[in-house]
Amino acid sequence: VSQKLADLGTLAAGVAHEVGTPLNVIDARAEQLLERPEAPLSMRQRNLTIIRTQIDRITRLVRQLLNLARPFHLRLAPLPVQRLVTGVTELIETDLNRTGTELIVHVDPAVQFQADAELIHQVLLNICQNAVQAMPTGGQLRIECPAPTLLRNGRLFASINVRDTGTGIAPEHLAHIFDPFFTTKDVGDGTGLGLAVSRRIIEEHGGWISATNCAAGGAQFTVHLPVVEQPSDPPKEK
User: How far is CA 230 from the centre of its chain?
Assistant: First the structure.
């Protein structure tokens, strides 16, 4: 019970902080509009734009909280890994070019996950975006998915490995990287819910996700998901 109360307190503190900051900005900007009704149009438009931006920030937070708490109604179907990876890399292409980050993709085209395409796309996109942000001056982003070899509880799993050459994850942070509201980003750059929601999505699929530091530098996230089994699959019980 005490641990649950502590977790609830951490969650409440995170919500209060993440919502309180944009609310303070909205209040200050609204006060300016009320106290200076004759202010130049450009100033009023700027204040309204800032207010809308902060409202979007709160809306995004609420959506992520709902994703963290709600029961998922998975729409499971075969999801080819190549289609998944292509869809994600197309969305981060601009960031890769801007930072000069090299993208290397090695996936087994025969792998098909039994998954909800939209939700798994959300997970992989979040992981890849974090990886690119960890390499602000460029580096190498490697996405790999070898043939499935892991059998657990009668189900065959394949893994997607996302590796970057950034600064890695501080050892004291590794145990908390998937905790709600845990973030190493600057205030306003992230809610700390992306990886928590990602873990929840993967677990809803019956899989699991982990993060480690690489010996040569950088970090690696590994997502294990059940696959559509083929007669030729050579599973090994672990």
Answer: 30
* Integer Cα distance of 221 and 232 in angstroms: 28
Where does the chain have alpha helices with state H? 2-35, 41-69, 81-99, 117-133, 194-204
Cα angle for residues 225, 229, 233 (degrees, 5° grid): 105
Structure tokens at 120: 């798994």
What is the length of the chain?
A: 238
The tens digit of pLDDT for each residue in 42-96 reads 989 999 999 998 888 788 777 767 766 667 788 999 999 999 999 999 989 988 9
Half-sphere exposure of 25 (CA within 13 A, CB side): 19
For 49, 183, 209, 210, 225, the CA distances from 178, given in Å and listed in that order, are 33, 9, 9, 9, 17
Q: What would the mean pLDDT of 174-203 be, rounded to a whole number?
A: 72
Question: Residue 63 in 3-state DSSP?
Answer: helix
pTM for this model (two decimals): 0.71
What is residue 93's three-state secondary structure? Answer: helix
Max CA distance (Å), the chain: 75
Burial of 88 (0-12, 13-18, 19+ CB in 10 A): buried
What are the distances in angstroms from CA 208 to CA 73, 89, 96, 175, 178?
A: 18, 22, 27, 15, 12
Rounded Cα distance between 159 and 147, Å, is 8
